[in-house]
Design goal:
The complex is a heterodimer of chains A (251) and B (446). Chain A is an alpha/beta fold and 251 residues long. Helices cover 47% and strands 17% of the residues of chain A. A seven-stranded parallel β-sheet of chain A has the order 3-2-1-4-5-6-9, with helices on both faces. In chain A, strands 7-8 form a two-stranded parallel sheet. In chain A, strand 2, helix 2 and strand 3 form a beta-alpha-beta unit. In chain A, helix 1 crosses helix 7 (207-220). Chain B has 446 residues and is α+β, with helices and mostly antiparallel strands. Chain B is 27% helix and 24% strand. Chain B contains 14 helices and 19 strands. An eight-stranded antiparallel β-sheet of chain B has the order 15-12-14-13-17-18-16-19. A five-stranded antiparallel β-sheet of chain B has the order 5-6-10-8-9. A four-stranded mixed β-sheet of chain B has the order 1-2-4-3, with helices on one face. In chain B, a hairpin with a 4-residue loop joins strand 5 (68-72) and strand 6. The two termini of chain B are 27 Å apart. Classes of the chains: A alpha/beta (251), B alpha+beta (446). Chains A and B meet through loops of A and strand 2 and helix 14 of B.
């Protein structure tokens, strides 16, 4: 259960080796979280993450979960929810793709869309149904500022996040009054493995900063979290910029 | 009907199916039909935390089961259904010269809730907790059966203070207190710091039936723990003026307009609460003896402000109440200093002395000092601070009150309540499928 100060006791992390996901898990485990379900594709990184969280005192179980294998989500996630209440489900999987390659390889672009959007739709719906049955809990969805307005340089990734973001907002509205809720997190450029070697955007942030914003948002019951917070205003400006002008920006 | 519920602190809302049985049979049917996520009884929702919530399950609103079954005016015994409030009981009984044996800081609690939380009042050092005055009760258990329970029986003692987790209390018989007037004679005095306060309480508390001290927790330095003591007794007729004597048992509590919705959070900061506390302390007489006060003003001042819990805004608030045994005054002193240093804006901080504890397995009171304080949930660093205080309370052999709790760690709790293992075993035996459960039970693994 979430306590009066918004501290959860159990966590389901979808995308079990995501850096932002793990930074958040670490933070929550040093608080009240004692039960962690790590769902991801089997890998040494996933096992290492489980060991690290165990060392922090959590009871961790690892589940074989492939975001792209959408037809397995009901079964895999159904089993996890059957084991006990989940206070926070964090949807942290996603791929960046390679825009230049993907523009010429439609099937590669489809993979990005399958993981980032389709995978989120199925797993998000399964989680939402379970949280509704529980009558409490939060689904935290890692969106991105890239979804706010698609840019020339990464519109494939950006469009999947735009779809995911719209889906998550609508899902949140559908859960109104159920006791469960959705929190959409929109980080800017985050320095992680995924962005290694890329040119940093202004207001770049870290996985830890995103994790902190997530835990603060959980405590306050926020619906939308921007990381860093200033991006809310930057993106509001960019969203309303006329296209001929937007195109000319070095984004 | 589905609805979101919170406790009085308005934190951690969850959704449950609500049903309001009007007969014991309907309550039994609702319990049987509760499904996998179980059911819990709810009274007037005055528990601060999540004791009367049941996420995804059923919550039985007991307030329609509120009949008075019988009233023995000669012996002072009343048999009532569990959903009746202490407010209604007082209105009914005072004209006959009888008063409820124990009342907390609000009249708006049900008899079922009073037993389930084994509540205490300002007279604990004399009268013990509520359940001591319950001569029998009837409990609806998970198997759908009803059990007539008497004090001393295992299930009776597990139910008093059992937070509604052994079953649904259907009705009870309560032994009342005779009074000759509806007024209180009250002595007020100021204590200039914590040591002065504890000294005054220790040496003179036994002279009063009712005793309580309000502490200014915002005051620091030499004034840390300064307080106003209010102690009293039911007034006898000879103390009343001729006008008051015309209707010595009158009970017509007055009420101010309710606090409006939508008050912004953060209104209660250290500065505003500090100013209020300063005023409250200065307003109290240095010493006054024998002032006549109405029951409402003496026992339930906040009941005069409906929905006062809204002043804390959207983030809500929590109450922290603990007890440390006599001999652990150093811990109490250290905790008051830590709270004061942290700058917790609390305008309701109450210290009193408990007498003997009751036989309830999870009953809160034990001989010692108990401090209760309201805190806005949004105070930075509040969680870690209260976790540290929990540890100190535990180390001192004390405990935190379940009816107020909304944030404790399950590990800490089991150290505080030595009979918790027995309680769990009993629940496992009489309710193997967990038909009775609550958010509190889930959060603390009760």
């Amino acid at each position: 259960m979430l306590n009066a100060l918004g501290d959860p006791q159990s966590l389901l992390l979808l995308g079990g080796s995501s850096e932002i996901g793990l930074a958040t898990a670490r933070r929550l485990v040093t608080g009240r979280v004692r039960v962690v379900h790590l769902a991801g594709r089997p890998s040494p990184a996933l096992d290492a993450a489980a060991d690290e969280l165990r060392a922090l005192g959590a009871e961790v179980s690892v589940h074989d979960f492939d975001a792209a294998a959408v037809d397995t989500h009901e079964t895999v996630l159904g089993k996890i929810f059957a084991e006990g209440d989940i206070d926070v489900a964090l949807l942290a999987f996603g791929v960046l793709g390679d825009q230049q390659r993907d523009e010429h390889e439609p099937m590669a672009a489809a993979d990005v869309a399958r993981v980032n959007y389709l995978g989120a739709v199925t797993s998000g719906l399964v989680c939402a149904q379970a949280l509704r049955r529980q009558g409490h809990g939060a689904l935290v969805v890692l969106s991105s500022v890239a979804g706010e307005r698609a840019r020339r340089s990464n519109f494939i990734y950006g469009s999947t996040k735009a779809g995911l973001d719209a889906f998550a907002q609508g899902l949140g509205d559908s859960l109104q009054g159920s006791g469960a809720r959705v929190m959409v997190v929109r980080p800017g450029f985050v320095r992680t493995r995924m962005t290694e070697g890329m040119q940093e955007a202004p207001l770049a942030t870290t996985a830890d900063a995103v994790a902190e914003a997530i835990t603060t948002g959980l405590r306050r019951g926020t619906e939308t979290v921007w990381v860093p917070g200033a991006l809310r205003y930057v993106m509001s400006g960019l969203r309303h910029l006329p296209r001929p002008l937007f195109r000319r920006l070095p984004l | 009907m589905e609805g979101q519920l919170t406790g009085w602190g308005r934190t951690a809302p969850t959704t449950a199916r609500l049903c309001a049985p009007t007969t014991a049979d309907e309550a039994a049917a609702a319990l049987r039909g509760a499904g996998g996520r179980g059911a819990v009884a709810r009274g007037l929702g005055r528990s601060y935390g999540d004791a009367a919530q049941n996420a995804g399950g059923t919550v039985l609103d007991m307030t329609r089961l509120a009949a008075v079954r019988s009233l023995d005016l000669a012996q002072g015994l009343v048999e009532v259904e569990a959903g009746i409030s202490l407010d209604r009981l007082m209105r009914l009984l005072l004209p006959f010269g009888w008063f409820v044996p124990v009342t907390p800081g609000t009249r708006h609690v049900t008899v079922g809730g009073a037993i389930g939380a084994d509540i205490h009042g300002k007279n604990h050092h004399v009268s013990g907790s509520f359940s001591r005055h319950v001569t029998r009760m009837r409990l609806l258990t998970a198997d759908g059966g009803t059990h007539e329970l008497l004090p001393g029986e295992e299930l009776f003692d597990a139910t008093t203070g059992g937070m509604g987790l052994t079953g649904v209390i259907l009705d009870a018989t309560i032994r009342l207190l005779p009074v000759s007037t509806s007024l209180m004679t009250v002595d007020t005095e100021r204590a200039h710091d914590l040591d002065d306060l504890m000294d005054r309480l220790e040496t003179t508390d036994h002279r009063y039936r009712y005793s309580v001290a309000w502490i200014d927790l915002v005051a620091r330095g030499a004034a840390t723990g300064r307080a106003v003591l209010t102690r009293g007794e039911h007034a006898t007729a000879d103390l009343l003026s001729p006008r008051q004597l015309a209707d010595p048992l009158a009970f017509r509590p007055r009420s101010l307009p309710a606090v409006p919705r939508g008050i912004p959070g953060g209104l209660l900061r250290t500065a505003t609460v500090g100013a209020f506390n300063e005023l409250w302390y200065r307003k109290a007489p240095r010493e006054r003896r024998g002032q006549l006060q109405r029951i409402g003003a003496f026992f339930h001042p906040l009941d005069g402000v409906p929905d006062w819990n809204r002043v804390y805004g959207r983030a809500g608030f929590l109450q922290y109440q603990f007890v440390v045994p006599y001999g652990q005054e150093a811990t109490l002193r250290s905790i008051v200093e830590q709270l004061s240093r942290h700058g917790c804006p609390s305008f309701l901080a109450v210290l009193k002395r408990f007498g003997e504890g009751g036989p309830g397995w999870l009953s809160f009171p034990m001989p010692g000092w108990t401090l209760a304080l309201d805190l806005p949930a949004g105070v930075p660093g509040l969680g870690p601070l209260l976790d540290r205080l929990d540890e100190q309370v535990l180390a001192a052999g004390g405990r935190v009150y379940l009816a107020k709790d909304s944030r404790m760690r399950p590990q800490t709790l089991s150290g505080m309540y030595p009979r918790l293992a027995e309680f769990r075993a009993l629940r496992q035996r009489i309710d193997p499928h967990g038909a009775l459960t609550s958010d509190l039970a889930r959060r603390l693994a009760l």
